[in-house]
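Standup notes, protein team

Yesterday: finished cleaning the Candidatus Blautia stercoripullorum set.
Today: Stage 0 sporulation protein A homolog structure.
Blockers: none.

Input for Stage 0 sporulation protein A homolog:
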Amino acid sequence: MVYCIEPKGEFRKFLMYTLESCGYTSEAIPSGKELLEVLEHRRPELILLDYDLPGEKGLDILDILRDSFEYVQIPVIMVSDTNDGSRKVRCFDHGADDYLSETMGKVEMIARIRAVLRRAERYQQADRAAQM
């Protein structure tokens, strides 16, 4: 399951359609606050989190996720309408696993999502092996 926290309706539809056409299930969550509520009950494989949420900052939500022992291992890809280098660096400095620009092509977007999910799976396998 991939959670999409993206306020722009058309781009959210594009993201969800793209994910589902590649075999992923996805769920739209309207805000960062609601994401945190949903996470108390269900954990996704990945979160796509918009940088500019109405009334919230995506980086603030990312900080909450990264500061929480419960959620720190959930991969988060930040999504933004700009390809600004300084914005990307801020996202990575706050703990984002990757960054998608809304102008990015579908093929690259899916390749980046797959790469993040592969890394997350490797970390989980290593954690399980270390616990044995």
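Follow-up from PR in the comments: The helical segments are 9-21, 32-39, 58-67, 85-93, 106-131.
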